[in-house]
UniProtKB/TrEMBL annotation:
This is NCS1 family nucleobase:cation symporter-1. Keywords: Membrane, Transmembrane, Transmembrane helix, Transport. The chain crosses the membrane at residues 33-53, 60-80, 100-126, 138-162, 168-190, 202-222, 242-263, 270-293, 327-346, 352-377, 398-418, 430-451. It is a multi-pass membrane protein. It is found in: Membrane. Belongs to the purine-cytosine permease (2.A.39) family. Its main location: membrane.
Length: 463
């Protein structure tokens, strides 16, 4: 009881991957709107939106449609994962042991750690470039270091500070975003050919739509980490919609800004384009967006450490890591990401596109299995103590059906993949359109459900 009381009043979050008891539950559903709205309004989101023009060569209306449809579709999955946190009170990657088994889950957890490192490094690069653009005496590497230190600090304090940080950024970043649109439209002005119609290709439109959908799906492995402290009686519909609209609006608006900048600037260097197009307001706008990157990076680093701790606890089940372990791991992961950022900044856009497309292929099967299991097989009922046993308790070391479905989900996507590195035969026949993620969902969801509903139903009932 004393430890629980200390965790409530301590400015540093003491828990890491342990279950959150009812006495420790806190917060309001509206916090889920601000954390996803405030954390998405940043430079990396703007860059992602610009890909619809820079890479997929879409006109304004086609690009805006792809961005809106992709985000609204992908956010459904993101918000369904968010609703799990307040019910179970454990991190998302701990909960996935209920589908894959204690050791079977390690494959996905390790892939997710790699994902966090990639996004963290990408954000460091953009934060460093942004600070250098408004303060040339500061080198890009110096800017990277500043954003990284802010991120590590928030990660060290944990859940409460990250939520507070994003509440503030919701107002600051939202205001900066409105200032961007207002300055470009009313002061700089749009170029004459801004609304010129270029018939979109199916491959280009669907490519931009897929990137936007993946932006939302990439949150799936950690979205419930930020709802696990919510009161157990939180209305699930409200949890869903607060997460859905926070992440959708927070992503769509800056992505459309990226589309506008790409069409006005006609160059892949979107950061310089933003600085030039916003003139006298650029220093304030880029500074806010760079600080916003630190908020998002804190979330990436925080959840990356939880995943790394999950791997450690699987191998040493008696270990119950606390805040000290989170801070030490965060410093180690920050150092690794810093090296990646410094090494990869010269070819950022190409590396980033390849990275997010790779995520698409490995995340889709996992999110399908997790959601089908939670909502259709287990109906939200799991035996939490089994999550923390090395033998997996009632879930075992390995769930070979889930692992087989996961691998199947990756394999069925291969003919539909369209990248610079590899293009599948069906994608080539479709003119380069990549619909692999839709195929993955359509195959994995019914296959996993049919394989699991009779066999796993009894196993999900608490002992």
């Amino acid at each position: 009881m004393k430890r629980q009381f200390a965790s409530v009043i301590s400015p540093v979050e003491l828990k890491t991957i342990q279950p959150i008891s009812s006495t420790e539950r806190q917060g309001k559903v509206s916090d889920l709107f601000t954390i996803w709205f405030g954390s998405n309004i940043m430079m990396l989101t703007v860059i992602t939106g610009s890909l619809a023009v820079c890479v997929f060569d879409l006109s304004f209306f086609a690009a805006a449609a792809a961005v809106i449809i992709g985000n609204l579709a992908g956010a459904v999955f993101m918000a369904l994962h968010s609703a799990q946190g307040s019910q179970l009170g454990v991190p998302q990657m701990i909960q996935t042991r209920g589908q894959f088994g204690s050791f079977g889950a390690l494959l996905v957890v390790v892939l997710v750690v790699v994902m966090y490192l990639g996004f963290f490094a990408s954000n460091l690069i953009l934060g460093g470039q942004g600070l250098h653009a408004i303060c040339p005496p500061l080198s890009i590497n110096g800017g990277i270091a500043i954003v990284g230190v802010l991120s590590v600090t928030a990660t060290a304090f944990g859940y409460k500070l990250i939520h507070a940080y994003t509440r503030i950024m919701s107002w600051l970043s939202g205001t900066a975003l409105l200032l961007c649109f207002g300055w470009i439209l009313l002061v700089t002005g749009l170029p004459e050919a801004f609304f010129s119609h270029r018939p979109p290709t199916f491959a280009g439109f669907f490519g931009a739509l897929s990137i936007a959908a993946l932006w939302q799906l990439a949150y799936a492995p950690y979205v419930s980490d930020y709802s696990r402290y919510m009161p157990e009686n939180s209305h699930q519909g409200k949890v869903f919609w607060a997460s859905y609209w926070g992440c959708s609006l927070g992503s769509i608006l800056p992505m459309i800004l990226g589309v506008v900048i790409a069409l006005c600037w006609k160059d892949d260097d979107v950061v310089t384009g933003l600085v030039t197009l916003t003139g006298g307001a650029s220093a304030l706008i880029v500074a806010i967006f760079s600080v916003g990157i630190a908020a998002t990076n804190a979330m990436n680093l925080y959840c990356g450490t939880l995943c790394a701790l999950t791997v450690g606890q699987t191998l040493a089940p008696a270990w119950s890591p606390r805040s000290g372990a989170r801070i030490i791991l965060a410093l180690g992961m920050f150092t690794l990401s810093l090296l990646l950022a410094v090494a990869g900044q010269g070819n950022f856009l190409v590396n980033y596109i390849h990275f997010i497309l790779l995520l698409l292929y490995v995340l889709i099967p996992w999110t399908a299995i997790n959601l089908v299991d939670y909502y259709l097989v287990a109906h939200g009922s799991y035996h939490i103590p089994s999550f923390f046993r090395q033998d997996g308790g009632i879930y075992g070391y390995f769930n070979y059906r889930a692992i087989a479905c996961y691998l199947l989900g990756i394999l069925v996507q291969i003919p539909f993949i369209a990248t610079d590195v590899y293009t599948g035969c069906i994608a080539r026949a479709m003119g380069g359109a990549d619909i692999s993620w839709i195929v993955g969902l359509m195959v994995v969801c019914p296959v996993y459900y049919l394989m699991s509903r009779g066999i796993r139903a009894s196993a999900h009932s608490p002992a």
